[in-house]
Design goal:
The complex is a heterodimer of chains A (about 260) and B (about 230). Chain A is of the alpha+beta class. Chain A contains 9 helices and 7 strands; from the N terminus they run E-E-H-E-E-E-E-E-H-H-H-H-H-H-H-H. The longest helix of chain A is centred in the first third of the chain and has 14 residues. The chains are: A alpha+beta (about 260), B mainly alpha (about 230). FE2/S2 (inorganic) cluster binds next to loops of chain A.
Chain lengths: ~260, ~230
Amino acid sequence: MKITLYIWRQSGPNDEGKFVRYDVEKVSPHWSFLELLDVLNNQLIEKGEEPVAFEHDCREGICGSCGFMINGVAHGRQYAPEGRTTVCQLHMFRFKDGDELYLEPFRAKAFPVLKDLMVDRSAFDKIIEAGGYITVHAGNAPDGNTILIQKDIANEAMNAAECIGCGACVASCKNASAMLFVSAKISHLGLLPQGQPERKRRAQRMIAKMDELGFGNCTNQYECEAVCPKGIRKDFIGRMNRDFLFSVNTETESKDFVGAI
Amino acid sequence: MIVKRLFTTSVGRKTIVAITGILLILFIIAHMLGNWNMFLGPDAMNSYAQALHDLGGLLWVARIGLLVVFVLHVFFTIQLNIENKMARPVPYYKKEYIKASLSSRTMVLSGLVVFSFVVYHLLHYTFGVIQPETYKGNLTDSMGRPDVYSMVIFSFRNPLISLSYIIAMLLLAMHLDHAFQSAFQTLGFANKRNFPKLIQFSRAFAIFVFLGYSVIPLSVLLGIIN
Ligand code: SF4
Ligand code: FES
């Protein structure tokens, strides 16, 4: 089949950028979406043109590197009726001959475009650095199962821990809010016993960092949940808010905790 | 500290919007129940209005409290909205919604319409600037009380006034359809089990408020109360 792509081309962070039309002929339904771009890039290289920059790593939906907008939806979620897809896991049999697709990078103030479809998502790393961890003594790894965790709590923590940090939630939110991502990170640690000592401080610091980096404020439209490749649920945001609200006034207390270890 | 966090952080200010929103919802319910006195006849309505009036100082406390709640709600939503616009300086060329409800996408519009309606409504019934000839201050019933009952009937007999009232209530209902569940989600009461019910209840509540308010102008127009 033939696919027409309108791809956002931007040579660098300060370039203005524009859409450029590319036609790819003889597209196989077995290709993944990224393979479509690989084929296009080979053709561009043969012609001596600059290939399209896009991010990828695992190509099996687990690393969170890939991701851009396909016809206005992050990861092309509208083409995967069963939901939960990353661009690398979207295959060409979902499309029909003659489809016209607009590929645009994720757009948010906190995610500046580096080149073409690549954006800088290090803002997420900064949020993790602000509190998305537990403080432990270095040394031997503890024996498995020394801390018993109730099965349903472990399950729920894993549901939150599934987040791969792809940024689709920010991209699809009309407010460019990072609350789904932050809530997933706060929840997966906050549910487990190991995360309890720093739970309040974590919520405070990660939310403060998220605000500082210029992400927007959630208005509960749940577009994030709809595109999330890992099915992170919106009610984790409520959980995060609860952790934050009930954490007020405990900053000194948690500083003491860090001082004590 | 707690106050600073509430007023400066994203989650804190969202919480203020949610709590003031719930207080406004409580007011909307109370106001609607009060309006239903219209069905009990002139005496019930006028003595209810008189009783409210006789609260004196307390009435002013409630009015000022309500004003503060309203101002906080509007102020923070505007502030958060400006930040949200700034969070995406370069807009998408193509953007599709796959889940967001119509009411959630029109919150600013429905909010602004409700806001202008409240101003108009106060000028009309509380201050008597609009239609002064039927203002309660200029009408008295047989017991010498301001005749709120007749004021409402006279003004709703004007189909334009009734229609604008009903349209405003429709937008209020749209606002509530999103707002109700949104407030509980923000405050962290929603979880995966109660979420679908919460969304259904939010819709049902919005429809209930719409019907509960619109039934009065409709009854006047249809001559059920006169
Ligand atoms: S919450 Fe979902 S959409 Fe957001 S970064 Fe994590 S995996 Fe991606
Ligand atoms: S390349 Fe790893 S998730 Fe797509």
